[in-house]
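User: Hey, my collaborator sent me this sequence without any context and asked if I could get a structure. I don't really work with proteins. Can you help?
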Amino acid sequence: MGSGIKSLAIAIAVIMTLISFLIGSSTSAMFGLAGALLGTAIAAPLYVLGILVSAQAQLMKATMDTAVHTSPFLDSNQKAAAMSLK
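Assistant: No problem. I've predicted the 3D structure and written it out in structure-token form, which is a compact way to encode the shape of the chain:
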């Protein structure tokens, strides 16, 4: 999910920059620059959100791994299946 959000942020920045430069080439160069800055301003927080979602997923995976590893109720095969190793 985090990778998808980061990809979406990059796509938004590229699309907004291209569209603003295309429109700016026929009107004003400042419009192209403003559009590029706006695209970056929108994409940067989204990219950071993607990083935070990825980090949270890694924390949840580590917590699950610790719980499974220390569980006295699971044998080795069940532990491997719970951690998606089998």
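In plain terms: The chain has a mean pLDDT of 89. You can pass these tokens on to your collaborator as they are.
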